Amino acid sequence: MKRTARPEGGPAAGHGGVPLRVPGFDDLDRSWLRSRPGVKWRRVEGGDLPAWVADMDFPIPPAVAGALQEAVAHGDLGYPDWTGGSPLREAFARRMASRYGWEASSSRVREQTDLIQCLQLILHLATSPGDAVAVQTPNYPPFLATLRTMQRPAVPVPMTDVPMTDVPTAGDGRGSRIDMAALADGVARHGCKVLLLVNPHNPTGTVLTRDELHEIAAVARRRDLLVVSDEIHSELTHEPHRFVPFASLSPDAAARTVTITSATKAFNLAGLRCTVTHYGPDRLLAVRDAQPPDLYGTVSNLGVTGTRAAWLHGDAWQKQLLTVLDRNRRRVHDVLRERLPALRHRLPEATYFTWIDARALRLAEDPVGFVRRHGGVLLDGGAPFGTGSEQYLRLNFATSADVLEGILDGVVNALATPPAG
What we know:
Blueprint: H1 30-35, H2 39-42, E1 49-50, H3 62-73, H4 88-100, E2 109-112, H5 115-126, E3 133-137, H6 141-149, E4 154-161, H7 168-171, E5 176-178, H8 180-190, E6 194-198, H9 210-223, E7 226-230, H10 251-256, E8 257-261, H11 264-267, E9 275-279, H12 282-289, H13 301-313, H14 315-339, E10 344-345, E11 353-357, H15 367-375, E12 377-378, E13 380-381, E14 392-396, H16 401-415
Parallel strand pairs: 1-12, 3-4, 3-6, 6-7, 7-8
Antiparallel strand pairs: 2-9, 4-5, 8-9, 10-11, 11-14, 13-14
Helix pairs in contact: 3-13, 4-13, 8-9, 14-16, 15-16
């Protein structure tokens, strides 16, 4: 792996004592990044920069690399001896208890390859075509595409902006919240069977508060909803915000909630294809376990090995990561506020995404394509994130200080003086 220091670029000063450059995270050589086989950098050409898909540019944690190398060196790629399930079941339960005080039962944990497979399996087992699903909007495009493909009508629950006058500290406070009235009304009018809850929220970066979660739990109880809670970004929550697992709220919430998470986002391991699902409802778990054992695939030795190493030995690396992401989110926020004041943008409370409202520019075309053509940066956003997102952009800031400066320069160059539409 080639990684060399790059003294040029980067912000002029740190924020709140955060160092300008962090070894292992900021010494990324662009030729090394472009040489990697992953989709993120392979989708750009020439000097263009990628800030779109949910992958980080950083090398994987040393503890994970070491565990994977050791497994290969020992030839440990045969059939695993996982009587009663993989070691991740107990590791997940212990992590939930130590981090969030949630006493999740390891006996209710099952392994799948990824988040989308988990959702599709749950919908397949718990619902039928035509059953409505309440879902926050905007939302992760593969979730919305899954609902369309499986013919489960999506009932939008908007994430609404908090008025600027209600946000303290010059716009650095909460940027959006779930529309509780729309949730209650939509569930009642459409007879929803399921609430697909994404917390922390992708793409807005919102972390729902305990009070908000209790409001949602009350709706779920009144309407007897199955809650599928995507908590994959939970460990990327920024101070002073606090993540609360939905199933930890009460015995009723625990009994109706299926929790999906993994180490993939918080430790940059998406390619290992390893996710865990905690089943609260007794009947749904029984139905799941009655399926043919390999019908929906199984996780690999290396996926379990890497995930377990991350959860058991990766916290020091993750602490450094969060320092870098906090610096980067503030840098993005400051640059957009100062150099693109027409855009609406809030400091994300979690994740490594920034959700940018470009409606004020009145672009006559897709904003993702516009920024790529005029700024040489590939972002995500637009219509795939749901109705109303057509003029929004999602920027991934999980990269080095140097690469981030290039991304921000490209975005500003494209959007500072766009041609009249």
